[in-house]
Amino acid sequence: MNKRKLIAALTSVALVATLFVGCKSTKEEVKPETAKTETAVKNETIIGLTTDEGGLNDKSFNQSANEGVNKAKAELGFKYMPIESAKKEDYNANLETLVEQGSNLTFAIGYQMFDAITEVAKNHTDKHFAIVDSVVDLPNVTSIVFKEQEGSFLMGVIAGKMTKTNKIGFIGGKDGELINKFEAGFAAGVKSVNPEAAKGLISSNGKSAGTTVKYADSFADTAKGYELAKSLYQGGCDIVYHSAGGVGIGLFKAAKELKDSGKAVWAIGVDMDQAVTVEKYADVILSSMIKRVDTATYNESKAQAENKFKGGAVVSLGLKEEGVGIAGTSSKNVPKAVLDEVKTYQDKVIAGEIVVPATRKEAMDFKLK
């Protein structure tokens, strides 16, 4: 009898132990908190982006746009599909490819995609689109534009105060309305603080470019940027500002070669803080005009992922909206006194006391009140 009781007791203990093990195992497999977290970060949104000819790693315009979407992706967990364009003929095909692959919101980066996105958006009214640097009047397209002339005006103030030769140059990508805004704002900024140095930047008739203004007819040809920069520096310019995407790398290369040989020259970057994005040329980059394409693409990506996208809107970003500005590394090469003056002019633009010109004709006629 005692033996039977002992066996029964041992069996009960084993059964209870097994039940405890089973309960523990089940609890670990379910992991309700982990499952809840995974569900929270999951987002079915698909966002696409196609660059202009500069490519994703142009250290400037397209790269900034790409970084903005990636930032939103890291926070919200949607799928992101970027495509690079090698030439203008790629634009339509790339946009169509992204739509076919399920993109809910597709970015067209650059004004050159106006025709392509207009056509594709009309053919896919159930999809959302956004274009940077142009306005497309369609209910499923958000247009993002910037007041580039305002940020460029500040670069002009810096250049006008820092030049030693009183000759300053500008290199643009493609000669047209958009890049003319950079050119005109820059010329006006120089004119505000150093009228003599602005002479080469100002058009003689309000239509043609000034004598120290050059265009590469490209946003990717670094060799052309190098060639144009060398000609400007050799012509007496000691500071050159660019708005030309990848072409600007050629400017930096030319500036560095000359500086290494003992010439006192500077370059000014654009769109991103190029003393950071192209660090090997940081010692020749006086400052950079920041254009917050990354903020714009981040905001629209977030809106799409949260079902808050508003098509048909035009978003305009200037100094007041912090859409353009001056690079944080500017204090490395620009004296505090000059930066203080830049801040004064910035405040006047924001307050509406200075209306920065956006065309060659306006820059030619520009005068401070």
Order of H and E elements: HHEHEHEHEEHEHHEHEHEHEHEEHH
Task: Supply the number of helical segments.
Answer: 14
> How many runs of DSSP E, i.e. beta strands?
12
- Which residues sit in consecutive blocks of at least 5 with pLDDT less than 50? 1-41
Q: What structural class do the secondary elements suggest?
A: alpha/beta
Characterise the protein shown here.
The strands form 2 sheets. The protein has a 6-stranded parallel beta sheet with strand order 2-1-3-4-5-11, with helices on both faces. A 6-stranded mixed beta sheet has the order 7-6-8-9-10-12, sandwiched between helices. The N terminus is likely disordered. By secondary structure, the chain is α/β, with parallel strands linked by helices. 50% of the residues are buried. It contains 14 helices and 12 strands.
Short description:
Helices cover 48% and strands 16% of the residues.
List the helices and strands and how they pair.
Layout: H1 2-30, H2 32-41, E1 46-50, H3 61-76, E2 79-83, H4 91-100, E3 105-109, H5 114-123, E4 128-132, E5 141-146, H6 148-162, E6 168-172, H7 177-193, H8 195-198, E7 213-215, H9 222-234, E8 239-243, H10 247-260, E9 266-271, H11 274-277, E10 285-291, H12 293-305, E11 314-317, E12 324-326, H13 336-351, H14 360-365
Parallel strand pairs: 1-2, 1-3, 3-4, 4-5, 5-11, 6-7, 6-8, 8-9, 9-10
Antiparallel strand pairs: 10-12
Helix pairs in contact: 3-12, 4-5, 6-7, 6-13, 9-10
